[in-house]
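Q: I'm writing a short explainer about ABC transporter substrate-binding protein for a general audience and would like to include a description of its predicted shape. Could you first generate the structure from this sequence?
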Amino acid sequence: MRFSAPRRVASWVGTLPCLVRAATVCCAVGMAAPAWAAHGFALYGDLKYAPGFTHFDYANPQAPRGGTLTLANPDRRTSFDKFNPITIKGVSAPGLESLMFETLLTASADETASAYGLLAEDVTVAPDGLSITFRLRPEARFSNGDPVLAADVKYSYDMVRSKFSIPAYRSLTEDVARVTVTGPRTIRYDLRQRNREMPLILGALPVFSPKWGGGKPFDQLTFEAPVASGPYLIERYTAGRNITYRRNPAYWGNHLNVRRGLYNFERVTYRMYADETVRLEAFKAGEFDAIVENRAKLWVKSYTGKRFRNGELTKQEFAHRNSAGMQGFLMNVRRPQFQDRRVRQALGLAMDFQWLNRQLFYGAYQRIDSWFTNSDLAAVSSPGTRPDAGELKLLEPLRTRVPAEVFGPAAIPPSTDPPGSLRENLREARRLLAEAGWTYRDGALRNAAGTPFHIEFLEDGGAMSRVITAYVRNLDKLGIRVTLRTTDYVLYQKRMDSFDYDMASMRFPDSQSPGNELLDRFGSAAADVQGSSNIIGVKSPAVDALVNHVLRADTREQLVTAARALDRVLMHNYYAVPHWYSAVHRVAYRRSLGIPATLPKYYAAEPWIVALWWDGAQKK
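A: Of course. Here's the predicted structure. Afterward I'll give you a sentence or two in plain language.
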């Protein structure tokens, strides 16, 4: 069971959005290396694909084009009220980022941190690493036929950095001092300090035309069709209910190796369903073509019926190698009841994952044990799970600012497998709560002032209700009163953007190679910026210092060391009650759809379907 996080900064990776997030792709050369230009960049090691490669291995260059792909809302959105996915206000239509907007570079889903030229034909890094210059392809065109010029790239940069846009863009690009158009097709970014990630963070920002909206202020763009360079145009829509994209017959990038075998459907339609049960029944009735299932019970029991029996529909699990990241019940430490670390640890002890996995999940999941779960960046990956010499070198200067336990074994989520038990876990939780000043009296858990311990769980669809109900039973044994508040997505998003919540079910995006997005997620400066990804409210000089070590890593080994040290501090602060993960994507689909024979290594299922599948009924 995995649930998307609220909308934050979009994954502006042109080839396969969300496969590798924007901030993972970085310069292959060290910042002190000679200036050079290249067809792509790899953060560590060599690029997989040499100059002149014909196509990505996971794409089928012979895939036929044509037909219509119809999908349901791919995430928590149940409606939309704008075509501008960059501004913070409102809810944008699904599909906009991947189908209409392009970037200077596009990521490879075969590599953890590599990208190749899309709008840009090359990028040059100065010898001192303090400036990056992109040169645009002369053939690149917007949907209105205008050439994509350096001035357009600068305009786009200024807009995504504006106060009206998602705050994460500003966090990602804070090291940029100035942007200069040096020619019709060349643009230079000067940096305040060396930042290995910055060349491809910039390469992964969306590019669009100043003519979008006909001169209307950027923050007032709602249903004005974007003027961008992507392969699709908006053909029709019903506000909040459905939207259909049609391939641009004049799309400029058909010849590119990074586009060969991609975006094969003539039309892509999204239909919005307000209820997940209705959405599943609509799929079984043939209203749309593919669905990604996140709930184990439904996958096991509900994907049946006439169309499955006659072979029109089928279901399949597709392996991936994504880092699982963090999904859990997040606590808002701005709230007074969550400010003591012992309280947060006690709340984690009340989660009985083993019971949930047996009774609700059909044994389909593993427990999340890190902010970088299922990767070598996790603290539990260290020998004996204790910090090694490299981690200690980073942690020792912070000893007075982090829990003492950080210097011991990694924090492991509690278990109820024998010899453990829920009873023992709740006893330990009661002890920790008492140490923090919370004791049971007069029918409730109360602090010294007599205030009862109360939690409001905020949810936007009820999908987690069974899990929360089981968790609440255990919290009730501790004397904690819980209210489940279920609301629609728009109000939910508004409350999360303004940090108006106690606890919520949240999933942070996967990351094979974390970087500048950590500033927005954990940085003290982002904690008071509404709309930022620091929804927990982390304000820790130690976390800030370790995030900086992650950002300044020059080798993969240094990155692993810094990430593990950061993971230890985050896990021992118990900001989340960790959930669970799976190493497969569950997809049910119309059998006539074509699927590439080679799977990517790192990918999200819905963008993979949109970008790389095809209509098998079409002739090649």
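A: For your explainer, you could say: The longest helix spans residues 556-572.
Q: Perfect, that's easy to follow.
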